[in-house]
Amino acid sequence: MLKRLVATLCGLELALVLGASAALALPSEAEDAALPGTFAGTVPLSSIEGESEGDGYALFLGAIEEVLASNADTVIEAKNDAVASEALAELQQAAAREAAAPAAEPQPEPAPAPQGPSTLALGGTVVPYVGSYLTSTAPEGAAGLWYGSDSTTDGSWGYFIGHNPGVFDRLLAMGEGSPVTVVDRTGAGRTYTVVLVFDVPNSTTWEDIESSVTGHGESIILQTCIDGGANYRIMVAS
């Protein structure tokens, strides 16, 4: 099959690129004896004289196979280069599209929850409060005004209590600098900032803490249970 292929190639006078791209053409049998020991300066034909099936043909076929293999590698390498270039071009185009795209407009901050009279806003949650003057426990489902005044304009303080777990459990995530907004029973609102946080045993009395929590001018005091009721957390905001 390979010999027949060589004969066919010769009949068509096909030029093959070998080594330094020299064009080769296989001679006819009548010319075999007249040829020197090398063919076109590239393919040795040491045994071609007098034989149509000698080593010269084998060398020639080997040279063809080498060229085909070399060309195949070149084609594959060129194809890989083309694929890489195409991928790089796609990445560059995507980056250009992203750079040209208009910047996303900032989303507006969510509106605060509506807050009506007799409410506290703690950590983004609005909690209603009711009168709970000097009671032994906080009311259920609401905070209680335990002592003082809820007015946001009288320059004094109001003491609010609430359950944890319950409406005051969000106090545990708050600290100095946290805001607390009060809308009093008249609808007047004021935002206070926590300035003092401390814990005391549940045996503590009002007299024990009065001097620490009053004297802050217009302010509020918040109290809830912690440690399963063993202690109280108290915050002052002014």
What does this structure look like?
- The protein is of the alpha+beta class and 238 residues long.
- The protein has 2 domains: 2-99, no CATH class; 119-237, Beta Barrel (Sortase, Chain: A), CATH 2.40.260.
- Helix content is 27%, strand content 26%.
- The protein has an 8-stranded mixed beta barrel. Strands 1-2 form a two-stranded antiparallel sheet.
- The radius of gyration is 48 Å and the shape is rod-shaped.
- The N and C termini lie far apart (102 Å).
> In angstroms, what separates the terminal alpha carbons?
102 Å
Count of discrete domains? 2
Q: Mean pLDDT across all residues, rounded? A: 77
Strand content: 25-35%
Number of strands: 12
CATH class category of the largest domain: Mainly Beta
What is the chain-wise order of helices and strands? HEEEEHEEEEEEHEE
Q: Mind telling me which CATH architecture of the largest domain this is?
A: Beta Barrel
Give the strand order of the largest sheet, numbering strands 1, 2, ... along the chain: 5-6-7-8-11-12-10-9
Major sheet size, sense and barrel closure: 8 strands, mixed, barrel
**Proportion of residues in helical segments:** 25-40%
- Which radius of gyration do the C-alpha atoms yield? 48 Å
Overall body shape: rod-shaped
| CATH homology superfamily of the largest domain | Sortase
| Oligomer category | single chain
Question: Which ranges are low-confidence, i.e. pLDDT below 50, for 5 or more consecutive residues?
Answer: 1-51
